[in-house]
UniProtKB/TrEMBL annotation:
Its EC number is 2.3.1.-. Keywords: Acyltransferase, Transferase. One of its GO terms (molecular function) is acyltransferase activity. It comes from Lapidilactobacillus gannanensis. The keyword Acyltransferase applies. This is GNAT family N-acetyltransferase. Pfam families: Acetyltransf_1. Residues 3-142 form the N-acetyltransferase domain. SUPFAM superfamilies: Acyl-CoA N-acyltransferases (Nat).
Length: 146
């Protein structure tokens, strides 16, 4: 048998790998076997006078909300909009009975903001991108028994 590794972008191969991984994970995780691993987009937008000024983009998957990005236009910062937006996300996640919220932020972004709102750093990667620290934060909203 000759085994080789190929670099490439092949959608059919990618789908096959994902399908195999999902099936393998479901065999080993009772939660995944029962609930699956599908994801649903849930985005939040802030408008002022019908104009989009800020928002948050994320997905729910594995009973968590993954906050992918949160952006407050500079002209509207320091007015409590970020806090209100995050509270809306937390209220949504709580209403959906999600376990918690997780996100990443860089060292020059909003780590302190998230920590003031109860988020805890649970991971750190240095030099991603180079010269930057990426922090992973989480806030558990409910407990789940194993």
């Amino acid at each position: 048998m000759m085994i080789e590794i190929r670099l490439g972008n092949n959608e059919a191969n990618k789908k096959a790998i994902i399908k195999n991984l999902i099936a393998n994970n479901a065999q080993k995780s009772p939660w995944l076997k029962q609930h699956g691993s599908s994801l649903t987009e849930h985005d939040f937008f802030i408008f002022a006078d019908q104009q989009l000024i800020s928002g948050a983009v994320g997905v729910s998957q594995y009973n968590w909300y993954f906050l992918e990005l949160l952006q407050i236009n500079e002209a509207y910062q320091k007015q409590g909009l970020g806090r209100k937006l995050l509270l809306a996300i937390e209220n949504f996640a709580t209403a959906q009975n999600l376990t918690g919220i997780r996100m990443e932020t860089w060292n020059f972004q909003a780590r302190g903001f998230y920590e003031k709102l109860g988020y805890q750093v649970c991971g750190e990667i240095k030099d991603c991108p180079p010269g930057t620290v990426t922090y992973t934060l989480q806030k558990r909203l409910i407990s789940i028994e194993n």
